[in-house]
Write a structure and sequence with these properties.
Elements lengths: L2 H17 L19 E7 L15 E3 L2 H13 L3 E7 L11 H5 L2 H19 L6 H23 L2 H32 L5 H21 L3 H6 L6 H11 L2 H11 L2 H14 L3 H11 L1
Antiparallel strand pairs: 1-2, 1-3
Helix pairs in contact: 1-4, 4-5, 5-6, 5-9, 5-10, 5-11, 6-7, 6-9, 10-11, 10-12, 11-12
């Protein structure tokens, strides 16, 4: 796909997000900016527990400059910390440009990114505050299943298959992260030795490899090639912890638009249990 065609595709996603899902973009995905290739987040985590090692217990540090993020990562590694450097195609803040990495991504991935980041913008502009992990999990549903809906409405058989494979792969990825995060949480309570930690992650790498061979979506496969360490699971648990609940909410509500309303309601009340109550009321 040419640059012009890819930009046009992103604009189509923008239109779909606004008109079909009532998402607000806050000026994002309006212009192409080749100087901003990737948005980069550094996670630094203690080697013996699933907790941030960044100053002030921050979840991550962000920069547009990949070289800067790599320098941060090297500094934290020399201090014995586990690091995960995540470079993505966009962010959820105001006026995020169309980046080279976004237009080079697979179409289903483009759809996910544009709709997921617009969810962040929508919540911010509407003044809806929710726990970070719920915002990311619900945003995953908006992005992944929004991509499926966009593909279905487009009638593009290839895109439909690609979006469906992405949704299935992310579901498997989320189950792997949740299971492994729980396993590590229990493991660290036993105060394991360095040798035991090495053995634990050897098995986790094997599990990641087995999952990688079973799924059919390039982005998730590549993430499973990344170093398996505390920082990897610390980062992704914020995206997967409430994903089963967010997905169940979507199923119970009957549509993505209806699910989004329930997510916002839970955010306004500040209660995760609100979603569980809403699900029960719709299934009885």
């Amino acid at each position: 796909m040419s640059t012009a065609a890819a930009i046009g595709f992103v604009k189509d996603l923008h239109h779909f997000g606004e008109q079909v899902l009532s998402l607000e973009f806050d000026g994002s995905f309006q212009r192409y900016a080749p100087r901003y290739r990737t948005a980069n987040w550094l996670y630094s985590v203690h080697p013996d527990r699933l907790a941030s090692a960044l100053p002030g217990n921050e979840t991550f540090r962000f920069t547009w400059q990949l070289s800067t993020a790599r320098r941060w990562a090297r500094r934290h590694k020399t201090r014995g910390r586990h690091t995960y450097l995540y470079s993505a195609e966009a962010h959820g803040g105001p006026k995020c440009p169309i980046t080279p990495s976004l237009i080079q991504a697979a179409r289903a991935r483009q759809a996910y990114v544009v709709l997921h980041e617009a969810w962040h913008s929508t919540l911010r502009l509407e003044g809806v505050r929710m726990p970070y992990a719920l915002e990311e999990a619900s945003g995953r549903v908006v992005g992944v299943l929004g991509a499926v809906l966009f593909a279905q409405l487009s009638g593009d058989a290839s895109l439909i298959d690609e979006a469906a494979a992405q949704a299935k792969a992310w579901g498997a990825f989320a189950r792997f992260v949740n299971k492994t995060h729980g396993r590590l949480t229990r493991f660290y309570k036993m105060d394991p030795s360095s040798r035991e930690r090495i053995s634990q992650f050897k098995q986790i790498r094997a599990d990641a490899g087995a999952l990688r061979r079973r799924i059919d979506s390039a982005w998730e496969r590549e993430e499973l090639r990344r170093p398996m360490n505390n920082a990897f699971f610390f980062r992704y648990h914020d995206y997967t912890r409430f994903y089963p609940l967010a997905l169940k909410t979507h199923k119970a509500s009957g549509s993505l638009n209806a699910a989004m309303k329930l997510y916002k309601n839970a955010g306004r009340t500040g209660a995760i249990r609100q979603l569980e109550c809403d699900i029960r009321s719709r299934m009885t």
